[in-house]
Amino acid sequence: MKKFLKWGLIVLFLLILFVIGFGWSIHEPRPDPNPSAEADALARKMLQAVHKQKWDSTRYVYWNFANRNEYLWDKQRNYVRIKSGTSVVLLHTKSLKALAFDSGDRVKDKTEINDLKESAWTNFCNDSFWLNAPVKAFDPGTSRSIVELEDGRKGLMVAYESGGVTPGDAYVWLLDENGLPKSWKMWVGIIPIGGLEFTWENWTEIGEGARISQLHKNALISIPVTDVKGGKDPKVLGYQNDPFQELHNHLSIQKQ
Predict the structure, then answer these.
(1) Domain ranges for the chain
(2) Nearest-CA neighbor of 27 among 235, 188, 180, 161?
(3) How far apart are CA 115 and CA 109, in angstroms?
């Protein structure tokens, strides 16, 4: 038994060394920013390619992220419904006030509500960014630069110096001739390896014509964005009544 544990620890140690070595072998330093009018023009071309104006006029959006979290988002009222496993959170994204449910039952414990809300908020920030990050190229606290990568390709770097859950992150977009994203390379705080590249592919149109990528992948993993739908009315998404009425009533009572 001791011999088995000894060899098991050796294998685990070698595996850790391999992962660390592989990570450092593909790590790329973050390009230096050099904001310019040319970069802003390229970013605007990207916004046109993904039909940002159509996205802005699409009030309700539904999607499933990575077969893990389901979302219904009312962008006009800043309401979002996040379903993860047996839990459902109805969240107002501006005030972060929320209602929480587990297995259909209303959660009353304040600590549990707060835990579910914090998890839902973090997931929403991440998963909505993967849903349509191109439209956030001019968010407050961003800068745009045209940079050259180590392999010689040129891309549009959008750096997020403030805001969101992880300020300081940066992404380099690789675009086609029309400005539509083909992939991005990431420098994010939660991943120690810089320059990981994921595709933006399998584009579809929702709502008023907003373009959404339904698949992001690299050599190791795939991140699907499925069941994407959008419209000006919740009935387009299969809801006959206001899906956020309970949250709306809750917030109205709190204002009194």
Answers:
(1) 30-255
(2) 188
(3) 10
- Torsion sign over Cα 247, 251, 254, 256: negative
pLDDT tens by residue, 30-40: 999 999 999 99
The gap from C-alpha 142 to its chain's centroid, in whole angstroms, comes to 16
pLDDT at 7: 43
Average pLDDT, the chain: 89
Name the E strands within 85-191: 87-92, 98-102, 105-106, 142-148, 154-160, 170-175, 181-187
Beta bridge partners of 69: 65, 84
Q: pLDDT tens across 181-204, in order?
A: 999 999 998 888 999 999 999 999
Report how far apart, in Å, the C-alpha atoms of 253 and of each of 170, 247, 256 are.
41, 10, 5
- Partnered with residue 74 across adjacent β-strands are 60, 79
C-alpha–C-alpha distance, residues 157 and 237, integer Å: 35
Percentage of the chain surpassing pLDDT 70?
88
pTM of the model: 0.87
Euclidean distance between the first and final Cα of the chain, in Å? 67
